[in-house]
Amino acid sequence: SNLVRTKAGWKWRINLPVISDHVSNIRGYPQGTPPSDTPTLFAYGGNSDYMTPERLEEARRLFPNAQFLEIPGAGHIVHMDQPELFYNAVSDFFAKHGSTLK
Q: Is 0.90 surpassed by the pTM of this model?
């Protein structure tokens, strides 16, 4: 996970070496991947063209317990374009689901 819980709260952690080592597996996702019932938040920018209707449909199939939130005024880099809205969405999600996540 890119988020880790610390005594002070949640912080970002990006493991670039692992991403680099496994980029071919990442590119092949979701072929053959079974759905996950883990609570998941998809926060995506309303100004981004990445989350097409087809991608949203596939995400809903793969994550049936997911919450989808389009953040207005944000592009692909949601946390930079609308940091307060993104922070509030993630904070609310973890307040609701944090104890059930691994």
A: no
